[in-house]
Amino acid sequence: MEREPDSSILNSAKILWNYLKVDMPLEKADGILIFCSNDLRVAEYAASLYHHGYAPWICPSGGVGRLTYGLFHKPEAEAFADVLIKAGVPSDVIFREDRATNSAENVFYTRQLLIKHNLTYKNLIVLQKPYMERRTMATLTHHWPELKFMISSPPISFENYPFEGFSTSDLVHVLVGDFQRIILYAERGWQTPQPIPDEVMGAFNLLVSNGYTREFIDPAASPSIPPQ
Q1: How far apart are CA 214 and CA 206, in angstroms?
Q2: Rounded to the nearest 10 degrees, what angle do helices 103-116 and 133-143 cross at?
Q3: What was the pLDDT predicted at 2?
Q4: What is the CA radius of gyration of the chain?
Q5: By C-alpha distance, which of 188, 189, 183 is closest to 208?
Q6: How far is CA 21 from CA 24, 138, 154, 201, in A?
Q7: Which part of the chain is the DUF218 domain (predicted)?
Q8: 145 FRET partner, CA 20 to 30 A, in 4, 6, 17, 121?
């Protein structure tokens, strides 16, 4: 059984957390795009933004995920839509994109869907988990450079992020894995390169040296990118 992270591990993990969040200010937009995941709190946040008049429609994007099929037993977009409807969002303003299995596919399949439904999407609010904000930004600026967007996530702190079935140790592992993707995907031309301060790289190296590599990907792995 993995031991609980000590203070040095937690401090380094929080440095990664703060780096991976980009904290863009929000204003009203043409629509809300959700990059779906295993965290349904993002759907609850989207519903709140809708009810506060930030956008007239919501597009949850996500297919059958490696980590979520056993959790939801349906595409992520459908699970997120269920939460949105339960929170009072009308079904006819929810446009489900249920094929994407990675961030690049979220972009390509969503763009096709928005065109199909003749929706305006010059300026979007894009929602993610807090620690995936920066990677989402890097994906959008690379694969959808003409889009104006604001990235946001539920206002949950590092300390309060763990939930049932997802411990603080799990969070540290995924932070390290997501940071590795920031580096590798940029090197391979799949995302826009990000500046990395020395403090952040030092925190990453400390966590790697302490074995928090469970969510590492094969450096030779390539994401599926459908034709435009």
Answers
A1: 15
A2: 60
A3: 67
A4: 17
A5: 183
A6: 9, 12, 11, 15
A7: 42-143
A8: 17
128 shares its domain with 183: no
Query: Is 83 among the domain residues?
Result: yes
Q: Is 185 helix (H, G, I), strand (E, B) or coil?
A: helix
**Which pLDDT value is given to residue 3?**
73
Tell whether 41 and 138 lie within a shared domain.
yes
Number of domains in the chain: 2
Please report which residue ranges of the chain form alpha helices under DSSP H. Answer: 7-20, 41-51, 69-72, 76-86, 103-116, 133-143, 168-187, 198-209
Distance of CA 81 to the CA centre of its chain: 16
Q: Which two tokens stand for residue 108?
A: 């390509």
Q: Are 71 and 169 members of one domain?
A: no
Q: What is the mean pLDDT of each run of 10 residues along the chain (228 residues)?
A: 85 98 96 95 98 98 77 89 98 97 94 96 97 97 97 97 91 96 92 97 96 83 46
* DSSP single-letter state for residue 94: B
Question: What pTM was computed for the model?
Answer: 0.91
Three-class HEC string of 104-131:
HHHHHHHHHHHHHCCCCCCEEEEECCHH
**Beta 31-35 vs 123-127: how paired, if at all?**
parallel
Q: Which domain holds residue 147?
A: 22-152
